[in-house]
Amino acid sequence: MTYPTDLPGRPRPGAAGGPATARATCVLAPNPSAMTLEGTNTWILAEPDSDLAVVVDPGPLDESHLREVIATAEAAGKRVALTLLTHGHADHSGGAARFAELTGTHVRALDPALRLGGEGLGVGDVITTGGLELHVISTPGHTADSLCFHLPADGAVLSGDTVLGRGTTIVAHPDGRLGDYLDSLRRLRALTVEEDVEVVLPGHGPVLDDARGAVEFYLAHRAKRLAQVETAVENGHRTAGEVVAAVYADVDRALWPAAELSVRAQLDYLEEHGLI
Ligand SMILES: [Zn+2]
């Protein structure tokens, strides 16, 4: 829940919208907050020589933003042919139904409740719209329905809220579970090692050029917080609220309600593993 500035990698233009890799362009939604950083990153993906584009996370229900996404694709000579969701949080999916209406596309997501007009998304699925190759990666933990998308041609992964461009994310208890989240981070680390993924195209915040460093940072951060929560419990802090006050004292109080979700997920994890 802290937002350090020493996260590996450097900001790229994608942080404020614009091209980030050969195949990925960001359109920043106008919904900045402590939780969403500068706003939601809506991603337009396309092969350079194709006239078809895939949009990942249309963002919140904001008509002007949705129309800007379409206009940005059209300005590059692309027609939006498919809409994908990294997960169901409203800042990513709230505009999906309207966006599907405006573009005539299907919406594909892991959660059946979020799908519109077509198939879902399954782990191991490969999207091939307009020659663009996109692999679906299972990454539960932030939420149960969280996915990442691997874009091999650009050595990039679209990380949704599983890894952010700055700071760390929440494990949204009870839907999000810490054990799942740690497994997902390890899966992303394997992608950086085995598939040469170097670039993170996050759901919020700037693009990261050191994917492996970012994932290692997240794993280290989670281990540190978990140890702090364990110590807080050993020191007599019993409720999630007490643990938040003890462990997240250095964090803006506006983020404490979100931190409490992560603490509940951590307490569950410690109990399940017989550590408290
Ligand atoms: Zn989210």
Automatic annotation (TrEMBL):
UniProt protein name: MBL fold metallo-hydrolase
Region (Disordered): 1-21
UniProt keyword annotations, A-Z: Hydrolase, Metal-binding, Zinc
Family annotation (PROSITE patterns): BETA_LACTAMASE_B_1
Domain of life: Bacteria
Organism the protein comes from: Streptomyces cinnamoneus
Skewed-composition ranges (Low complexity): 12-21
A single GO BP: antibiotic catabolic process
Domain Metallo-beta-lactamase: 39-204
GO molecular function, one term: beta-lactamase activity
Cofactor: Zn(2+)
Entries under InterPro entries matching the protein: Beta-lactamase_class-B_CS (IPR001018), LACTB2_WH (IPR041516), Metallo-B-lactamas (IPR001279), RibonucZ/Hydroxyglut_hydro (IPR036866), Sec-metab_biosynth-thioest (IPR050662), WH-like_DNA-bd_sf (IPR036388)
Lineage: Bacteria, Bacillati, Actinomycetota, Actinomycetes, Kitasatosporales
SMART domains, A to Z: Lactamase_B
